[in-house]
Task: structure prediction
Amino acid sequence: MNRLYSIYDRADPQSFELLQDSISLKKKDIDPIIDELESTLQLIIPDFSLKRVYIDIQDRLLFIILLLTLKKLDASVILIPIEIKPDVFFESEIIYITDNKKHPEALMINNKFEIITGDNFNKNNLRNFENRYDILLYTSGSTGKSKLIGKNASNIITEVMELYRLFKPLKKDLFYITPPLYHIYGFLFGLMLPLYSSSVIDLTYHFTPESVAEYVKEKKVDFFVSIPSYYKMLEELHLQHFFKKAKKLFSSSAPLPLDISDSFYNKSVSITEVYGSTETGGIAYRVSAETIQWQLFSYVKIHGHSLNNEVELIIDSPAISVDYDKEMGFNTGDVVNFNTDNNFVLLGRNTKFVKIHGKRVDLGFVLSRFRDYIKNTYSINILEDQVFAGLKDDKIYIISEGNVFEDPRKLIEDLRAFLPGYAVPRYIIFNSIPRNEMGKINKQKIDELIKGL
Result:
């Protein structure tokens, strides 16, 4: 039996439950749906064990039941983000199942769990993949461009067991998540962890932060899972008190600003941040309102660090899903300062350098000088995550969310007093920094924004 499916198979039938709107499905209700869907799919494709399957499913309940069925069939499943169009990823050698896009070579699935074969679907085109993964996910990575990361059951189960050990969800505890299930964070916290603990997953969608907050309070949600940009909206609408009865609030995918964490903490609500990536799995956790220090997950081992020095964070971990030299360790690209063997302060990404006419320029230094100038001249404090610098045609540009309502040409001229000529930005754009739905910088949207410079 597939190891990920076995987590579902061992779930307590008395406590595990899927909720969505007026639908309530216990394990005894889900099992026959999976069995029937499994039989239907096997009539079309008898053996899934070496196949890869794209699932492009918007309905969350349908997503989970189809995913569990495909894991029972031992298929490698590729989770498709809603923003990626089929013409970007589609290959006729890979099975494509969707509930929201008509495609002649796809299998369509409806909310009755019925499969409709596309007119041009050809099972004879399908390829067997010897390099097997249990789950493959698209991630923006550090470049902002979509890339596919494969994870094996051992990567996922390692992390799920650690989350269960640390945060101790109980049977019948209620989970509610805002991030999508096709993102590693949503997949782990919104499906695998509650599955492992035989808890209840509420998939009901609410459009506004107000309705989410009211729902969390009304339904007595135990574990609330979201992202920094959503917590920011909740904080701006003064909705922190709706979450007082929840056992745990989680945040991941991007740094949670300390002022937001503090605003919840001052209302007796703690947000636990989880640090990691799709490639590395979870690395550490903290409640930033209590401490700036991150606590390592127990399975993470550190390579070559010394206490009280700035070092690159290089790790060894069974949750890492990409190939790396085990002797050298995996370089996360982050700079940290270890206070003890298991606790560190995250200082930021490795400094970003670019070359301009043969000169090495530190964009982090340029942004620091820009922020200092704005603060000293206009008494406006622009946070680190409110500015972005890049290079276009050997010219530096800055995007700033803090607007001083000044002619950018004057700012550029004034910055010459603080930067060498080749490092002075040629363009300053006052604009919100484009981000994807998980709050990460969207480099493709930035490219569109600077196109006319």
Q: What stands out?
A: The mean pLDDT is 89. The chain has three domains: 3-151, 206-349, 353-449. The longest strand covers residues 330-338. The chain has twelve helices and 25 strands.
